[in-house]
Structure formats: C-alpha cells, structure tokens
Amino acid sequence: MAKPGRDGVAGYVGAVAWLHAARHNAIVALNLWSTKRLAGAVMTTDNPGGQEVRRLSELSGEQWRSGIAAWLGWLFDGLDMHLGVLVAAPFVMELIGAKSERDPDVGFYSSWIQAAFLIGWALGGGFFGRIGDRLGRSRALMLTISTYAMFTGLSFFAHTWWQLLIFRFLAALGIGGEWAVGATLLSETWPRRWRPWLAAVLQTAVNIGVLLAGLAVYLLAGHERYVFLVGVIPALLVVWIRKAVPESEQWKSDRKKSDREVPRFADLFGPSLRRTTVLTMLVCALSLTAHWAFLFWYLQHLRNLPDLAGWTKVEKTHLESRVVWLVIGTSILGNFFAAWLARRLKYRRAIAILCLAYGISMVATFGAPRAHSDLWIGYTAIGICQGVFGLFTMYLPPLFPTLLRTTGAGFCYNISRIAAGLGTVAFGLSSPDGDHRFALLYAGCLFFPAAAIAWVLPDVPDE
Fold first, then answer.
1. Are 173 and 128 a contacting pair, CB within 8 Å?
2. What angle do CA 106, 109, 110 make, to 5 degrees?
3. What is the C-alpha separation between 418 and 353, in angstroms, rounded?
4. Cβ(43)–Cβ(52) under 8 Å?
5. Are 287 and 413 in contact (CB under 8 A)?
6. Kindly report the CA angle at 203 between 198 and 206, in degrees rounded to 5?
7. Res. 428 pLDDT band, cuts 50 70 90
8. 308, exposed or middle or buried, with CB in 10 Å at 0-12, 13-18, 19+?
C-alpha cells in the first residue's frame, strides 16, 4: 500500500479542516436561525411588523385574546349603537304622545337624540383615547364597554324624550372610546401585513352586532322599551377582559421609554402631524356625516313611504328589520372587498374610490321617488360601499406615534361625529312631512369632496 505524499497529506488535512469549518458554520447558522425564530415570535407580539407569523396557528395566546376582546367589543358596539336607531321613531312617538310616526315632532326630537348620541360618540373617542394612551389599552377597553352597556340599559327607564337623549349621549361616550382603543390594541399586537383583513374582520363584528340589534327589534316588535335591556349583555365581557387580556407590549415599552412623559394633545397639531390630523378630520367629518344621515334617515324614510300607508306598525318593523339585514349583510361583503382593494391600491386610494362609489349609490337610489320594492338594488350597493369605514380602523392608528395613537385616531375619527350629529338635525329639518328622500340625496353628495380629500391623505409608512 502506497504512503501518501506531502501533497496528499496536506490535502487530507485541508479537507478535514474544511469539514470542521463547515460543521461550525452550520451550527452557528442553525443557532442564528433559531434565535431569529424566537425573536420573531416575540416581535410579532411586541411589534406587529414581525413577518415571521404567516398562519393563524403561529399566533400567541396573548394575540388571540386581544383579538377576541377587540372583536367582541366592536360587536357589542354595533349592537348598542343600532338599538336606538332601529326603535327611534316608534319609541319617541310613545315618549312624546304623538299619534303618528309622520308627526313632524317625532322626526324633530329623534334627530336631536341622534345628534346627542353622535356628539357623545365624538367626545368619548377623544376622552377614552387619552385614557388609553395614559393607562393602557386593556384598562381603557374595560371602561368603555362598561359605560355603553350601563347607559344603554338605563334607556329602558326613560319616560321623556330628554331623558332618552341623556342616556344615549352617555352610552355613546363608551362606544366612541371603544372604537379607538380596540383598533389600536389590534394594530399593536397583530402582524402589520394582516391589517387590511383585520379591518374587515373588525368591521364585520360591528355588522353582526347591528344584525343582532335587528333581530332583537324583530322579536320585540311593539315593545320598543325592552329592546334597550338587550344592551346590558356586553357588561359580561368586562369580567373576562380583566382576567384574560394582557396589555399591549408596544405600549408598555414606549411608555417606559418615555420616562413618564406623555405627548400632549396639542402635539396632534404640531408641525409634524398637523397636515395629517387636519386632512383625516375632514375626510372623516364629510364621510361620517353622510353615512350617519343614511343610517338614521333611511329607515324612517322607508316607514313613511306612501305605498306602506296601510301597513301596521308591527308590519313596518318587520320590513325594516329585513332591510337592515340586507344592508348589513352586503356591508360584510363590502368589508372584505375594501380590504382587497386596500391591499392592491393602499388605504388612501381605496378610501377615495369607495367614498366616490358610496356617493354615486346614494344619489342613484334617492334621486327620484321610489316604492319600497324598488329600493333593494340601491340598498345592496350602499351596503357594499360601507366597507370603507372598516379601512379607517387599521389605517388611522399607525399615522400617529405610539403614545398619541389612541388619542390621534380617536380624536380624528370620532370628533367628526359632531359634524355628523349636527348634519343629522340639519338634514332632518329639510324633510317635509316625514319624506326624508331629499335629506338622503343631499347627504350622499358629501361623499364626493370626501373622496377628493382622501386621495391626498398620507400613506401609512409601513404599508
């Protein structure tokens, strides 16, 4: 057997050295990969931008609990929000002793009650948004749900129109606050790349809440006062949130880094945020005024149509519930269509396009007198366009710094409801003899400037 030469020995030693180096590099690479996987798992909780999580099965228990809490909070938002809308005309008629829902006083007092509700929503968004930035998302979520559950239930005891106005105003404080807190909690705990779909899922929770409100009104037709007791149910959610839902890690981290210094509310109008704040407020004010004018007046317009003159109050209530199910059912489809659009065109363009479509749909639906059987296509188109409001859920919070996030999102979106409340009254006063078609037509035109302004909104930095 031949002995290896000097070159052969050198080659052998080199090969062994190379194998040892390769083994060492493989071990280092494996350790690095494992570390990144672990960091990624943590990052998706502390920083929603973590890209490692791509499947629901990879989400942490904390993420699931925060998501369920926000979703249920929004579902009960929709329930308590719409209970008052659905029974407004017959309940106010009872409270003021009117003989017909077409009595001008019914529309007058109903519109002021709705205006108070929307103004309360606006103030609650700013108030609880500030609490969410100071005390944390989880604590603020409990406070908002407790508030709207309690005062919706107390509406059962109203015996005058102004008592109902006060209870609806106070309930709205919690509903407005829950919007900002729930949206911010999810934007900070779930992956960024899922935001458009999260917006659709959250908005769907509101839609399901409205469907449940419609079901409650359907089952309790003729007993409008008892409908408000259904609104107490969300209070049960608070007990679970207190035990199961952790605080946002991103909020805790940034709160600690801030050395107890929280940005001021005035910073929303500072040089770096002023343009974003003002443009966002304008888009929200215009679109929400038009949207809430539709939500409040389209059912009263339906009930007062001439071809329903011979119908009983219960028959009208049943028809009203079916129409609500149509509009809300199609709006659930609209939520996911809006998410698909946002994924391809970015949020601001998707918002602009859907605002334009919403305006066209309202003008086409209410531009001429129609019987109730001729309104179904229009209601369907309008329902699909309502998906635009789901986009604000995930679009607004990232526009602002962490410790101004619930304040900024809550203020810009909800302060616009003051305009919506006043618009509801103004459009109601323009409706002669209970015919709200012109109010709905004029309100729909507000979507056109909203679409134009939305086109120049800023993009989310990490879209």
1. yes
2. 75
3. 25
4. yes
5. no
6. 140
7. low
8. middle
Per-residue CA distances from 70 to 125, 155, 360 (Å): 15, 25, 32
Q: Which of 135-139, 224-228, 260-264 has the highest mean pLDDT?
A: 224-228
Within a domain: residue 107? yes
Domain that holds residue 120: 59-257+270-454
Residue ranges in 304-415 assigned as alpha helix (H): 313-345, 347-366, 376-385, 388-395, 405-414
User: Residues for the chain: how many in total?
Assistant: 463
Considering only CA atoms, which of 408, 410, 411, 419 is closest in space to residue 450? 419
* 20 within domain boundaries: no
> Which residue type is seen at 290?
A
State both tokens at 46.
Answer: 């502390």
**Nearest-angstrom CA–CA distance, 340 and 338:** 5
Helix (H) or strand (E) holding 262: none
In a domain, 3, yes or no: no
CATH of residue 107: 1.20.1250.20
Cα separations (Å) of 226 from 146, 152, 154, 316?
Answer: 19, 11, 11, 18
Q: Is residue 377 part of a domain?
A: yes
Task: Specify whether the backbone of 61 is left (phi greater than 0), alpha (psi in -120 to 50) or beta.
Answer: alpha
List CB contacts of 51: < 8 A, sequence separation 6 or more. 40, 191, 193
Phi, psi of 40 (to 5 degrees): -60, -40
From residue 367, give the alpha-carbon distance in Å to each of 97, 427, 437, 439, 447: 33, 15, 8, 11, 15
- Supply the pLDDT for residue 115: 83
Domain count, the chain: 1
Nearest-angstrom CA–CA distance, 11 and 409: 68
Q: What is the pLDDT of residues 173-217, one digit of tens each?
A: 888 888 777 777 777 777 777 778 877 888 888 889 888 888 888
List Cα–Cα distances, 272 to 275, 277, 290, 298, 352, in angstroms: 8, 10, 30, 40, 23
Token reading at 7: 């070159």
